[in-house]
Every structure is written in structure tokens, then in C-alpha cells.
Amino acid sequence: MRRLLQQQPAPPQLSPEEKELLAQLHDIREPAPISWWPPAPGWWLLAALVLAAIAIALLWLRRRRKRREQNRYREEAVRLLRDINPADPRATQDINEILKRVAVTTFGRARCGNLVGRQWLEFLANTAAIECPDAAAKALLEHLYRADQPDESGNRALTEYAIAWVESHSTETTKQKQQAATAEATGV
User: Fold this and answer.
1) What is the band of 150 on the pLDDT scale with cuts at 50, 70, 90?
2) Among 75, 83, 94, 162, which residue is least crowded by beta carbons within 10 Å?
3) How far are the Cα atoms of 28, 66, 101, 113, 181 from residue 123, in angstroms, in the given order?
4) Which helix (H) or strand (E) holds 67?
């Protein structure tokens, strides 16, 4: 180790001019840190996309809530239909009453409030794209006002049909939809 120290040359002696020049030197100044404002164009684009996504999500939630509020009667009707016991002598009447309430809520009393029998079944068929099973039609036509002879299998079929109708009925009748489709296909 002593040899290493001895082998290193001694620092050179500085002249007075060199000392004066060294005295004029200052520490290296670092540049100012990069400012976070204004952000780069990519950040502006990302902010715009995030704001657009939030706006779309809010509009979607608002529309979903509005649609759910408009269809709340459907949920309530399905719940009431599921609560009906098919073996109950008044089951057919209860199912028919719920169907009438839904129809009057959707289409108005003037359009469907007074319909009975075959006219009522035709109205139900025209406002939903599902067929009424024969057992359900029989229960509505024959056992509606006969509480002395309950038809449990007919009531089950009627309940299933009523639930399907409540969930799928639309404000336009099937004939109106067919006419609109025909008009669109012919270009009228």
C-alpha cells in the first residue's frame, strides 16, 4: 500500500492565474424540473376519453333506471302470478284479474277493459308473440267463473302463459307490427 501511495504523483502546483480561473467556476446548475402543467396532448386525450366514458355510463344508468321504473308493473305482476296456488278454486279468477290489470295499465281501459272470452284471448294473442296453450285457453273460457271445479293443470298452464305474456307483451299489436314490416319491405 505504501508503494501505491508513493507511486502516485503529487498534485501539480497551480499558478495564480489558474487559481483565479478556478475561483470563477460555480457548481453545475440543474435545469428547472419539468412542469406538470400544461399536460401533454396524450393526457388531454385520455381525460376526454374518461369524461366521455363517464357521461355514457351516466346516460346508460339513467336510461336503465327509467326503463326499470316503466316496467315495474311487470315485475309486480310476475311476483303476484307466482304467488297464486294453482289448486285454489279462485286461481283462474286471480290470474285473469292480474292479466286485466296489466293490460289496462299498458293499453288503457277503453281498449281492453271490457274484453271477455274469445275477444280477450285474441287481444292477448295480438299483443304478444306467444301462443296461448289450449289448457290455458280452456281454463280462461270454461273455468273462469266456476270456482266449484278448479282445473289445477289448466291453472298451471294459464299461470305460465300469463307470466310469459306479462314479460313479453308490447304496446303494438302483432297485426300492427306485421303491417309495419310489410310496409318497410315494400318500401312504402
Assistant:
1) confident
2) 83
3) 90, 27, 14, 11, 20
4) helix 41-70
